[in-house]
Specification:
By secondary structure, the chain is of the alpha/beta class. The chain has 31 helices and ten strands. Bound molecules: zinc ion. Zinc ion binds next to α6.
């Protein structure tokens, strides 16, 4: 009895469709089918783990064979299914029903297993109306198993229902999917899950701080099962659960410590960082969680800067005054750049075996970045390019020798931006970028070339590399945001129109040689010093990284490659996203 009481997940397993949390649509569809006595031979339940797929499949099976199904169909208001009382429902509750067969495809992937199932499916049900087969983790079935399965799908026996449950629907062959009735089980949204956990705590007399519930919800990705399991772990830790207890139990850094830590990083004080890491016993914390929470915090600061409050910021409610103060002293640009650094290093962080030390050195590197100091003022420095150079050298420092490949790829993408005509207006708008709250608009303006405003005609001219249609739409939408800025530049302007120019890569190249001879020289020098020597390029292991440069024969060597077609240049687009610059045809000698 004691054990049963302890196992919350089992105790709370839904016994009727009404107990299924956050899946109203799927439940309604299933109940309608039961009411109309219309069943499909094959169902596919797909969605995140722990969201109610298996539970709903079991409830469907119980309802189909419930002795009160007829009563439900006649009077759905008075009678629910599964009734939970009849002998069939009782057998289902104990998972002993002879007509319900649950198979874990993860351990029965072979074609022989499927053949056995299919053979048994031809026999009539023993007790109920139908035989129901629940195939859990169905995506794990082998190709041969799916093929055998397809045969029965073409002519399914009337007395059989198959339910395939899967977290990876795209792994189920299209031929199977097209013959099945699909239901999606989305992750349960935060507020429903939070409300549900509060009810559970009340029912189970669990004394818990409300913030702990928010913490649990934020950790479980919409999975009811995970949330309940976490709640159970937390409640066993103490008779009255505080947020600090819960964080400690989960190997997490406390919110207050997290904020202090991030503030030290933002202030760029390396010594203080080390002292602080030691103080909070950094090595005992779960590094992945610290990593994730730093990202959440950094993102929250961006939101706070724009004065937007969100449900996801609720965990920081207690510290809002402190966060506001930090947000006020830092630019969006800086916070965004730090987020970018997290994305840049994410893959290496995921792969490294000593995450704790990696994270420590990453934080130290962030601390030591000059940009942390430079960009904390509101003004965006004109030396934006030099920041990019630093960013690249920063990545490379962390990557070190065993990551030579990444390093080589990063080198190939040039650090300098495309040539620009620095007009008066261009300098003006660059200064103003930090005042624009729309990050996408900022990014577009940054990418614009030959940015100029014709005061007399009221025309905002800009040129882009590659297709301009995307920029056009976005800019037209943002006109109201741009007008006040333009008025600052040209007070008599009340309206303006856009004039777009589409640059081809070759034109940019031409412009570059016309306008920026000295810069070219500089780039050449950088290349000479930095790019690995020729034998390295011949090495087989680098070939992967350079494949993109050899795709098209008719691009002249040394010219900028137009990669605006993302489907054709996926890798290059990915690179450019992370390392500002452009893709050039590689010199062949
Ligand atoms: Zn029943």
């Amino acid at each position: 009895m004691q054990n049963l009481e302890l196992n919350l997940a089992r105790k709370l397993r839904p016994k009727t469709f009404n107990d299924v949390i956050g899946q109203e649509l799927s439940v309604r569809i299933l109940k309608n089918g039961l009411y109309l006595n219309k069943f499909f031979p094959v169902y596919i339940f797909s969605g995140n783990r722990g969201c109610g797929k298996t539970t709903s499949a079991r409830l469907l099976a119980a309802a189909v064979n419930c002795e009160n199904l007829k009563n439900f169909q006649q009077n759905p208001k008075e009678q629910d299914v599964p009734c939970g009382k009849c002998s069939s429902c009782n057998l289902m509750l104990g998972l002993n029903h002879p007509d319900f067969i649950e198979i874990d495809a993860a351990s029965h992937t072979g074609v022989d297993n499927v053949r056995q199932i299919l053979e048994s499916a031809t026999y009539l049900p023993l007790l109920g109306n139908k035989k129901i087969y629940l195939i859990d983790e169905a995506h794990m079935l082998s190709k041969a198993a799916f093929n055998a399965f397809l045969k029965i799908l073409e002519e399914p026996p009337v007395s059989v229902i198959f339910v395939l449950a899967t977290t990876e629907i795209y792994k189920i062959p299209e031929t199977v999917r097209s013959r099945a009735f699909q239901l999606f089980f989305n992750g349960v949204n935060s507020s429903s899950l939070s409300d549900y956990l509060k009810i559970v705590c009340k029912d189970e007399a669990i004394v818990i701080e409300e913030e702990v519930i928010d913490l649990i919800v934020s950790q479980t990705d919409g999975s009811v099962r995970d949330a309940i399991n976490l709640l159970e772990r937390v409640r066993l830790s103490s008779s009255s659960v505080t947020l600090e207890d819960a964080l400690k139990l989960l190997g997490k850094i406390g919110y207050e410590e997290l904020i202090d830590l991030f503030e030290i990083v933002l202030n760029g004080d390396e010594r203080e960082l080390i002292v602080y890491l030691d103080k909070i016993s950094f090595e005992n914390l779960a590094p992945q969680s610290v990593w994730d929470m730093l990202i959440v915090l950094c993102r929250s600061l961006v939101w706070i800067k724009f004065g937007i409050s969100s449900k996801s910021l609720k965990v920081f409610d207690k510290y809002s005054a402190k966060l506001k103060k930090i947000a006020e002293s830092k630019s969006v640009h800086l916070l965004n750049e730090i987020l970018q650094q997290f994305w840049l290093q994410e893959e290496i962080f995921a792969k490294t075996s000593n995450k704790s030390i990696f994270l420590e050195s990453f934080l130290l590197q962030l601390c030591m970045q000059d940009f942390a100091k430079n960009l904390s003022s509101k003004k965006i420095p004109s030396s934006y390019n030099s920041f990019d150079e630093k960013k690249n050298s920063f990545s490379q420092n962390l990557v070190k020798e065993n990551k030579e490949e990444i390093k080589a790829v990063a080198k190939e993408v040039k650090v300098d931006a495309l040539p620009e005509n620095k007009t008066e207006f261009h300098s003006f708008i660059t200064e103003k970028l930090s005042e624009i709250s729309d990050l996408l608009l900022v990014s577009i303006l940054r990418q614009a070339k030959d940015l100029d405003f014709d005061k007399e005609k009221g025309v905002l001219k800009m040129a882009f590399l590659g297709q301009t249609s995307f920029f056009k739409n976005k800019l037209e939408e943002s006109k109201s945001l741009l007008l006040p800025l333009i008025k600052q530049f040209s007070p008599q302007t009340n309206d303006f129109i856009f004039s777009f120019l589409e640059l081809k890569a070759s034109e940019v190249e031409k412009k570059k040689s016309e306008n920026l001879e000295p810069l070219n020289k500089k780039i050449e020098n950088i290349q000479r010093n930095d790019i690995p020597q020729k034998p390295k390029y011949d090495n087989q292991k680098y070939s992967q990284g350079y494949k993109v440069f050899n795709k098209s024969k008719n691009i002249e060597v040394g010219k900028v490659v137009d990669i605006s077609d993302e489907s054709k240049w996926p890798k290059s687009n990915l690179l450019v996203k992370f390392f500002s610059g452009r893709i050039e045809k590689r010199q062949s000698n």
